[in-house]
Design a protein that fits this description.
Elements: H1 3-10, H2 37-41, H3 63-84, E1 91-93, H4 95-107, H5 111-120, H6 129-146, E2 157-167, H7 174-182, E3 187-191, H8 197-211, E4 231-240, E5 251-258, E6 264-281, E7 284-290, E8 300-307, H9 313-322, H10 326-329, E9 335-343, E10 345-352, H11 354-359, E11 387-398, E12 419-422, E13 427-433, E14 438-445
Parallel strand pairs: 2-3, 4-11, 9-12
Antiparallel strand pairs: 1-14, 2-4, 5-6, 6-7, 6-9, 7-8, 8-13, 10-11, 13-14
Helix pairs in contact: 1-7, 3-6, 3-9, 4-5, 4-6
């Protein structure tokens, strides 16, 4: 694979702009090049200014279309499976982070292995260079523009980590290592799985800590590494943002939250009233709470889907994940004056995606005869390269530590809200970046007092 072409295509030199994030432009981005095995063995191409130089491969679709396709075909099915299997506690998944790690694996794959990865990622099963360009185009833009931390500018705090690790016996291709860093903002490294498995675990966890500024402290607490371990693919995403101002708070005190088992607990709630996008549907309500925006174009919001009944969460999520367009069709657009009461919560959720990806049709990459030849140097001996684990961790905080306890504002003369949104029982939520339309988190809260 000619990874230098990949880097050049996705990183054209351009002048600095006042707003570095632009998703709505009609200009097609320069594509990245993913050469086939035959092309990798071919003689070097002529200089790019030569009249007979072949054009670089183009993505098969505009990036917005490719993003929408990946969310329908990959993000929603994956999140639906993960959340359905996590019905006993709080759970959250960041599909773009998992997508980016699998797109990185696709860049090092060949043949049927690559075709199956592309199929699951929503890029079609043809396995052509244009489909690989689609996957890399989406992953690179989302990681660099949507998931990039710009907290110093006043927006939400984000921390992304993605990477792939092979045993120390493998000689990774320098081009693949550089493409992982430059295109996917990820790492491609080796660790001694065979002789020093405990050190390998420590090495990977330390990398995650450093990559996320200690907001995510581990990725491999329970996964064993031994001589049977192939490739470990990992991703993590941390998010914390403020969606209310202290002056808006009417009260911040403990209230009752009713759990699925019929018990109730006292947890801190934030209570205020504002005009917010709000919708009432049959059996549930949805509210949009915009996060404080930084000095850039990104706009993040959390959408909370609240079933009418205390035990209606899983019936609601079945509807959400049964129809790809259901979520988008039920996002609120009309603003109403709403009495809002939402519990503060923190979710730290970790899972191995392998089983869920296999259910979605991803099988070959987990077999010992998988073809990840483009990850390693040519003519270098190496053991079997196959995926052993696809690890993922999502950490997000929906709270505001600067708000003082029992803060009370009398709001004299303020009209009473016409609508009420009281999230005092299990609910589903989505965190979305509005400019790109990227859904970066999906999850459910069963007990706000629990952080896992």
């Amino acid at each position: 694979m000619q990874f230098s072409s990949l880097r050049r295509a996705l990183h054209p030199r351009r002048p600095r702009a006042a707003f570095p994030l632009t998703f709505t432009s009609g200009i097609r981005p320069r594509p990245f090049s993913s050469a086939s095995a035959a092309a990798a063995r071919a003689p070097p191409p002529p200089p790019k200014d030569a009249p007979d130089a072949p054009p670089p491969p183009m993505p098969t679709r505009r990036w917005e279309e490719a993003l929408a396709s990946s969310q329908r075909a990959f993000s929603l099915p994956l999140a639906g499976r993960v959340l359905a299997a996590s019905a006993t506690g709080n759970a959250a998944v960041a599909p773009p982070a998992v997508h980016a790690s699998l797109a990185l694996a696709t860049a090092g794959a060949r043949g049927a292995t690559r075709r199956q990865l592309l199929q699951v990622l929503g890029c079609g099963g043809g396995g052509g260079r244009g489909a690989v360009a689609d996957a890399a185009n989406v992953a690179s833009r989302v990681v660099k523009r949507v998931l990039r931390d710009r907290a110093p500018s006043g927006g939400p705090e984000l921390a992304f980590a993605g990477g792939i690790w092979a045993d120390a016996s493998a000689r990774l291709s320098p081009g693949f290592v550089e493409a992982a860093r430059d295109v996917y903002c990820s790492a491609a490294r080796t660790a001694d799985f065979l002789n020093k498995p405990e050190d390998a675990v420590k090495q990977i966890n330390l990398w995650v800590q450093e990559s996320t500024k200690c907001t995510v402290t581990s990725l491999l607490p329970d996964v064993s590494i031994d001589h049977n371990t192939g490739l470990i693919l990992g991703s993590a995403l941390y998010f914390r943002g403020r969606w209310i101002n202290q002056a808006d708070i009417r009260r911040n005190a403990s209230q009752k939250f009713y759990c699925l088992d019929g018990t109730c607990i006292d947890v801190p709630f934030m209570e205020y009233d504002r005009s917010r996008p709000f919708a009432v549907h049959e059996g549930f309500k949805v509210i949009k709470l915009p996060y404080q925006q930084g000095r850039n174009e990104r706009k993040f919001s959390i959408y909370i889907f609240l079933p009418d009944t205390h035990d209606g969460l899983f019936d609601l999520t079945k509807k959400i994940f049964a129809e790809p367009s259901f979520l988008e069709q039920h996002l609120p657009t009309e603003k109403r004056h709403v009495d809002i009461r939402v519990p503060m919560f923190t979710v730290s959720f970790q899972i191995d995606m392998k089983e869920f990806l296999e259910e979605m049709g991803l099988e070959l990459p987990f077999h010992r005869d998988a073809d990840f030849t483009d990850m390693v140097k040519e003519d270098e001996p190496s053991g079997p390269l196959f995926l052993s684990d696809v690890l993922h961790k999502a950490v997000l905080e929906v709270n505001d530590k600067v708000i003082e306890e029992n803060l009370l504002s009398m709001c004299v003369g303020k009209p009473s809200p016409a609508e009420h949104f009281v999230a005092d029982h299990p609910f589903f939520f989505v965190i979305r970046e509005e400019v790109s339309g990227s859904i970066i988190f999906m999850g459910h809260i069963l007990d706000p007092s629990s952080q896992s």
